[in-house]
Amino acid sequence: WKLCLMAYIAPPHVWGMSIEKLSSDHGDGIRCATLSYIPILQWFVMPFWRKFVRETTGVSGNIFFDCLAVYCCPCCSIFQAGHEAGVDAEYEISRLVRLVTNSVSGFSPKDELNKAKPKLSADRDETSRLNDDMARD
């Protein structure tokens, strides 16, 4: 159920992870995830991606049914391909939580606000000065 939820909430992530699991160079995941965000291009890429997963894992089918599956229910297609590729949702979720936790550890909103106050004050003074100059002209 976790992979299904991931395919619904973050389909590009599951798409990229399934390609990384199956490709030999382990670099296609980022490209696939990036392509999935381009609105019209994704509808041309997804059936061939599904075909790649299907052929790599030995699942029978053809490109017509790949297109049909992708166009009718893209999240289901992404889930199926992720499942066939062996994407471990438990591991991916824990990895994502770990990455987010590491990136925000030590973050203090008060410290960041105190760092930004001098710049905000200087920007406000500059804006006031420009407005005064424009009002005089």
Would you mind describing this structure in some detail?
It is built from 8 helices and no strands. With 137 residues, the protein is mostly helical. Helix 1 (2-9) crosses helix 2, helix 4 packs across helix 5 (63-72) and helix 5 crosses helix 6 (74-85). The N and C termini lie far apart (66 Å).
Quickly list its features.
137 residues; 81% helix; mainly alpha
* Overall outline: elongated
Q: How many helices does DSSP assign?
A: 8
What low-confidence regions span 5 or more consecutive residues with pLDDT below 50? none
What can be said about the biggest beta sheet? Answer: none
Order of helices and strands: HHHHHHHH
Q: Report the strand count.
A: 0
Percent of residues in helices: over 70%
Give the overall average pLDDT. 79
**What share of residues are in beta strands?**
under 5%
Separation of the first and last Cα atoms? 66 Å
Structural class: mainly alpha
Radius of gyration: 23 Å
